[in-house]
Amino acid sequence: MIWSDLLRQGIQTLTAAGIPDAPRDARRLAAHVMGIEASRITLIAQDTVPPGIVQLYDGIVAQRARRVPVSHLTGSRQFHGRVFEVTPDVLDPRPETEILIETALARPWRRVLDLGTGSGCILLTLLAERGNQTFGIGTDLSRAALSVAMRNAANLRLGDRVQFHAGDWLGALPVSTAAFDLIVSNPPYITLDDYAALAPDVGLYEPRLALTDEGDGLGAYRRILHAAPAHLVQGGWLIVEIGPTQGPVVSDLFRTHGLTAITVSPDLDGRDRVVAGQKPRV
User: Fold this and answer.
1) Are 189 and 158 in contact (CB under 8 A)?
2) pLDDT tens for residues 34-60?
3) Which end of the chain has less Cβ packing within 10 Å, N or C?
């Protein structure tokens, strides 16, 4: 069998299972089992598939047909130009979160705190983009997630500029921790009602703790804003990702807790995605 025929079978299997963009996923999985870049698949389309690869590919396609996320099958996900390890213990990095990255990089900062860091993709991307004069801390309630973040930090050679602490939001910080120029977070913002309607790829396989607050979707913002201003320097920034309908209410929470210069940034689809606010200078 040649690769073009095997790919065609994979696409048919995923299409029949209702997988969105089945050709893309079929190619990504083929590249994974071959250990090559997805862009090279067309170059081997007429090559004979090596022995054993047919069964391996069919097996991984069957898992995708059961809605196992591609990142869980390959063990990695690209985010802002870098490859991050991903496991079922962390939220799969999404392109929309890159809006938070761009918003943060538009502000001046040297010390950053990432609340609910998960894979560490936000924190580590910011440190890698900004350079050697920056330092960051990531907190997460899940020790399994922190293990993934630590491996990603090591893989990106950022281990000397980052620390990770287990615990609940800012409560995980050591007592003597200095204030930050920037605090970022992509907290769980899906309401309990909406959680039941999530696509199987998300609801069945991604950590519930990272998706929903088991309530109105605003619980994490309330807890973060209760403590975050005290951990910001004067003129420091708090930047959070939000759900597409939460811009006005999260902005109001920012104002209630004394933050100013509040902005709401849209994602590429024009939906509210990131809220930023500044602690006033005295």
Assistant:
1) no
2) 888 888 888 888 989 888 899 999 999
3) C
